[in-house]
Here is the input.
Amino acid sequence: MAGQVRTMATGGRAAGWKSVYDVLSKDILSLTLAPGELLDEMSLSRRFGFSRSPIREALIRLAGDGLVVTLPNRTTIVTPVDIVQFPKYVDALDIAQRVNTRLAAELRTEADLKAIAEAQVDFVAAIGSGDHLAMSGTNKAFHMAIARAGRNSYMMNFYERLLDEGRRILHLHFDYIERTRDGRLLTDEHEDMIDAIRARDVERADRLAHMHTRQFRDNFLDFLRMNYASSVDLGTPRS
Amino acid sequence: MAGQVRTMATGGRAAGWKSVYDVLSKDILSLTLAPGELLDEMSLSRRFGFSRSPIREALIRLAGDGLVVTLPNRTTIVTPVDIVQFPKYVDALDIAQRVNTRLAAELRTEADLKAIAEAQVDFVAAIGSGDHLAMSGTNKAFHMAIARAGRNSYMMNFYERLLDEGRRILHLHFDYIERTRDGRLLTDEHEDMIDAIRARDVERADRLAHMHTRQFRDNFLDFLRMNYASSVDLGTPRS
DNA sequence: TGTCGATCAATTGTCGACAATAGGTCGACA
DNA sequence: TGTCGACCTATTGTCGACAATTGATCGACA
Here is the structure.
């Protein structure tokens, strides 16, 4: 490490583990730390300039969030993105997205609408900036604002966890989305959802949420279907 | 503390935090450790006979599970049972129960059915034993066997977290249930669910799951409605 | 060449000490 | 009597050291 990152955290105690947690969380969500990558305490201790205790505490908290995997006497790893589980992920996201968006259409206040609209403005700005981490972060913030309007913390927490996994999946194929979608990234769908919530149209909100999940799924499947490699003629295999 | 509980854990390292985690987890779920109760590291260190590090690690893991609340520089507390949120909890449990039970009816194998049936046998035995912790534990295990048959780990994890909270709520009113239900505790409903899953009757499984949630809700609301106090005549308030 | 046991180094889990924090108590003052 | 500041104590957060674990390497042997 060329230099230590000894973050001067604002606020008092717990500045150790929290600063480590925040940085690692961001790095994992943005795929700066790749799925499966090793996170050993000694390296992190040298990198952040804290002793191993706050490092360990940050890692345990990240494990609680599902972002890393810790096993006894083993080096912690960044949680792998399990593509085989993608269909299960999509099914769960669909449920969470539909329930939270329905609840928002049912229970929203004027203040909620304002917050959702502001989150969408931030999202559109992030799209313009080209900053992938900001894009995935403001997308999540938009959906969290909707979930907040739905007023069920259990459903919201479930949704948040799924959205975080979705952020990592998004980062796997941002380049692809930008090339094939003129960088649009589903902004129209967000606007439609806002309209349905404003109109208290629960069924429409549900349908839009469902379509939103399907779009996300189809984007990723298209990405997986893509063949990046140059055409290489290996000849016809002999049987 | 009259004597130390220095548990001789099987297996190697991580025996420190894990044994603390297991004991505290059980105590919290059974309400032996009451909601809101303080868990200070020094006392736990003396109680379990470990230094504070594994205690802290266990507490951070318990916080990740939602069983305790840790804040910087504050003594950790057992997560309160928030009765105001009970309706939100029931709505979320309803979704999770229905989705997992539907999926089980759709995707179950013969091995799944066997596992579910065995879990129900354990549950019935626990009812007979009168051991509240075993009753709530085997009830959870029954529903987890169903969720396993549904094959969506995201929905299963969500359900598990809700069932754990439900265990604590169950422990709040076990005596009441036993007095008013002849200790039956919904065993017939479990059998009906097994039948629907065996028959791959997805819609019936869904309905039964929904009724199961409603029954749980109604039991608890009846319990809250009960007046335990002896009748005390304070006279008619003067306006 | 493959297998096994011994050794070593780098990690992880825990220990106890030190420093920082927060709440309670006490005395002074208005 | 209520408020404020100083002091004290018991906690929490972090430190660095020690012991345990694990994987890699090496040498011996068949």
Notes: Chain A has two domains: 15-78, 83-223. Chain A touches chain B through 30 residues (CB under 8 Å). The beta strands of chain A are 38-39, 68-69, 76-78. Residues 15-78 of chain A form a domain with the Arc Repressor Mutant, subunit A fold (CATH 1.10.10.10).
